Amino acid sequence: MVSAQYFHFKINNKWQKHLPSLVLLILSLFIAEAYQNSFNLNTLFIIILFSSVSFFAYGILYFTSANIKNEFKRFGLEKFGILTALLEILGAIGLIVGLFFLPILLISSGGLALLMLLGLVARLRVKDSIWVSMPALFFMLLNAYILFKSIPL
Predict the structure, then answer these.
(1) Using a CB cutoff of 8 Å and minimum separation of 24, what contacts does 70-76 make?
(2) I want to staple 123 with a disulfide (CB 3.0 to 4.6 A). Which of 11, 53, 116, 133 is the partner?
(3) What is the distance between the alpha carbons of residues 81 and 96, in angstroms, rounded to a whole number?
(4) pLDDT digits (tens, 9 = 90+) for 39-52
């Protein structure tokens, strides 16, 4: 039997905090690939799935990780931590429900884009580097894209 220690590897601290996003991206792509034959997936569906899984995971992380709570303290926003985590979880659920009920998708994607805009402002306020601010910018743009592509014209 192979011990788990053979699979242990150390990641540079610079990349370690981005590992959950990478894992979630890969997981989302595997889920999408598994259901592709059944659902005739398109790019927007995959993006919605990725965003939903990411926000759900990060919302849950607030309640399980001291690092996330410390970030809110660093921003001077610790009293908004639980609210932010709950909004992330609700937004993630809303994205999935929105696949079946368009108004919920519009509200959820718009709300998550706004939440990430505020997160980006908080990071810029404490003078974080662009590299550290990139996830907030990425998810803001991703959810803005979901919003605009979902608006019926």
Answers:
(1) 74/126, 75/122, 75/123, 75/125, 75/126
(2) 133
(3) 23
(4) 445 888 989 999 99
Kindly list the domain boundaries of the chain, sorted by start residue: 15-150
What whole-number distance in Å separates Cα of residue 66 and Cα of residue 131? Answer: 22
Tokens of 46: 């995959």
Query: Which residue from 93, 121, 117 is spatially nearest to 107, judged by alpha carbons?
Result: 93
- CB-based contact 132:123 (threshold 8 Å): yes
- Report the distance separating Cα 35 and Cα 18, nearest Å: 26
